[in-house]
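Sequence design from tokenized structure. All designs in this work follow the same two-part layout: the structure record, then the generated sequence. An example of the structure record is given first.
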């Protein structure tokens, strides 16, 4: 089985940023089939465009734009790419990275499909940062990654508790309805919970207020739509559940540090 050396991936590399600790690349997947292989270092793959099937010994992930995977260094996997353009953003962590500070190795064993909207938004910020490099970019990217591991640690701690069934029901409900007009009374009635209890307990399991969580889902959806050139910014804001364009731009910039138009220009460069 082939081992890929640090910073090496199958496909055409658009951009590559190498430091002593982080290896960052923006790649176009060109091969329809990649056989079993593993990498010298652990790394994240963030799908920017298109579709990709990634299979490991335990499971198969059918990835689309916005999906985020983690592979530890010993994790063997293979790829299948359908017709069409597929683009991925990789962040590889060298042996010198701050593993001990975040105690991350035991959190990220094998292959992981990371679905937390706040973590995915951090990868959108990492992607944006990779375009505007200066003498503080490495510090910024380091800080964003440490935040990623902090959130993953929080999620692991929560998952090890006895999580009530309503938490999973609420997560699925919000993902399906984030772009609609939501009211606390309606949501609590759907879950058969008292509104006060739901409001108080939400941050215990989700780490943020319900309002902040919904805004993150809206912005994450908007980012995916920005990759489709046939949608106007006004249409994207509406489809993502924002009542007006100014609110859409404010929320987007507060979470990603960029306007929707600026992000669109970079993702399509």
């Amino acid at each position: 089985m082939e081992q890929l050396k640090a910073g090496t991936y199958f496909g055409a590399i658009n951009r590559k940023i190498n430091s002593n600790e982080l290896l960052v690349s923006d790649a176009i997947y060109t091969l329809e089939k990649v056989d079993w292989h593993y990498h010298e270092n652990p790394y994240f793959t963030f799908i920017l465009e298109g579709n990709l099937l990634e299979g490991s010994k335990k499971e198969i992930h059918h990835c689309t734009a916005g999906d985020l995977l983690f592979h530890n260094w010993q994790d063997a996997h293979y790829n299948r790419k359908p017709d069409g353009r597929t683009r991925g953003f990789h962040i590889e962590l060298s042996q010198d990275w701050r593993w001990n500070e975040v105690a991350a190795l035991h959190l990220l064993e094998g292959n992981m499909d990371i679905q937390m909207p706040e973590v995915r938004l951090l990868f959108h910020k990492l992607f944006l940062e990779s375009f505007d490099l200066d003498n503080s970019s490495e510090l910024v990217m380091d800080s964003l990654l440490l935040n990623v591991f902090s959130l993953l640690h929080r999620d692991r701690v929560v998952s090890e508790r006895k999580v009530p069934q309503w938490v999973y029901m609420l997560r699925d409900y919000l993902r399906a309805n984030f772009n609609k007009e939501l009211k606390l009374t309606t949501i609590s009635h759907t879950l058969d919970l008292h509104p006060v209890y739901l409001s108080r307990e939400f941050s215990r399991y989700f780490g943020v207020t319900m309002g902040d969580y919904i805004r993150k889902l809206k912005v994450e959806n908007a980012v995916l739509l920005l990759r489709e050139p046939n949608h106007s910014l006004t249409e994207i804001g509406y489809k993502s559940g924002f009542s007006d364009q100014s609110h859409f731009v404010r929320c987007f910039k507060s979470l990603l540090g960029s306007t929707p138009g600026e992000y669109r220009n970079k993702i399509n460069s």
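The mean pLDDT is 86. We note this feature because it recurs in several other targets discussed in the main text.
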